[in-house]
Amino acid sequence: MQISQTEMEKRIVRYGELKPCRTAFIDAHTPGSNQKENFTIIGGGVSESADQHVHIKDTPGFNIGAAGQPPKCRNSLHSHRTAEVFFVLKGRWRFFWGRWGNAGEVVLEEGDIFNIPTGIFRGFENIGTDYGMIMAILGGDDAGGGVIWAPQVIEDARDHGLVLGENGKLYDTKKGQSLPDGIKPMPLLTEEELKAFPETPVQEVVRDYVARYWDLMALAQKAPAKVIGEKALLRDKPGFEVELLTRGSIPEAAYVNERHEVLMVMRGHWELAWDGGASVLAPGDTCAVPPGLQHSLVPAMTGEASLYRVVATGEKAGRTWRG
Q1: What does DSSP say about strands 113-116 and 62-69: parallel, antiparallel, or unpaired?
Q2: Please, are residues 53 and 83 in contact by the beta-carbon 8 Å criterion?
Q3: Which of 10, 29, 158, 246 could form a disulfide with 220 if both were Cys (CB 3.0 to 4.6 A apart)?
Q4: Which of these CATH numbers, 2.60.120.10, 3.40.50.720, 2.170.120.30, 3.30.2130.30, describes 17-210?
Q5: Which among 202, 236, 205 has a CA at the least distance from the CA of 319?
């Protein structure tokens, strides 16, 4: 298999070329959340707005996205039917969860990764001093069918002019928009339905779902650190596997992966070479490597170098697995 330089560059999304959407979700007008920027890098993501730009539309069995927020900006409580994994690219972030967001919280630093338990309400906030960015991996080609919002989020949004239709689309009453004929507002979850969303203890979350960057760097000195997978540090089968590679754990020779592979650079510059060309990936860049392509990775500079490698497993994305 061979791919030209031009074709492969179309499969690389540069950090500096990311196109944000500021109206992606229902809390886009809600004070405290109205400065969010959402990015859809690979796949359609879960945006509720037609304004969302999609960089690479084809999905490899999962979606890649990102969220950028200034200090003190937060993302409102929501849930997903499939996996949602974040790693911190820039800044310092507080993740919180539960029906009211007070069941527990954890603070993540740059490089830390969080495999958020499926089926719980979760939110996050930039608690750093500068603009921050977190990268996201969402399970499934359709990212689990959208977002499930805590009832108070929908009510707050309505008070600030945004209405979510039962079709999963947003309508901005401040712009004169209204629900189309035959489309009703998204119904609020009932108290009975809310009982299905667990209040996961903080000790369990920190133990089973969070991996710290410098721990992974130590594990990846001679071989890739298996971060998420059936036999990984965070044992799970979300439809994809995640590894951390560093300078000491890169493959010694070019290799071929018969499954979809996505490279997400955390630190340093990496030279990606393939049968047909070569390119340098920088921090924040995302590259979708097609199955069957022989390729190699080499740090292009001295100093710290790390990247997350995400590989599709072919399994149907589902609820978090424990065993």
Answers
A1: unpaired
A2: no
A3: 246
A4: 2.60.120.10
A5: 236
* Longest Cα–Cα distance in the chain: 60
Nearest to 71 by CA among 101, 85, 87, 92: 92
Q: CB–CB of 119/139 below 8 Å?
A: no
- Range 214-312 classified under CATH 2.60.120.10: yes
Examine domains 17-210 and 214-312 and report if their fold is the same. yes
The position carrying tokens 């590894």 is 243
For 150-180, give the DSSP string.
-HHHHHHHHHTTEEEBTTS-EEEGGGT--PP
* DSSP states of 242-292: EEEEEGGGS-SS-EE-SS-EEEEEEES-EEEEETTEEEEE-TT-EEEEPTT
Given a cut of 70, whether residue 249 has pLDDT beyond it is yes
Long-range contacts of range 270-273, CB-CB < 8 Å, 24 or more positions apart?
A: 270/297, 270/298, 270/299, 270/300, 270/305, 270/307, 271/297, 271/298, 271/299, 271/300, 272/296, 272/297, 273/298
| Domain ranges within the chain, ordered by starting residue | 17-210, 214-312
Query: What's the pTM value of the predicted model, to 2 decimals?
Result: 0.92
pLDDT in tens, 269-320: 999 999 889 999 999 999 999 999 999 999 998 899 999 999 999 766 544 4
Q: What are phi and psi of 216, to 5 degrees?
A: -65, -40
Amino acid at 40: T
Alpha helices in the chain (DSSP H): 5-9, 151-159, 191-194, 202-209, 213-219
φ, ψ (nearest 5 deg) of residue 228:
-130, 130
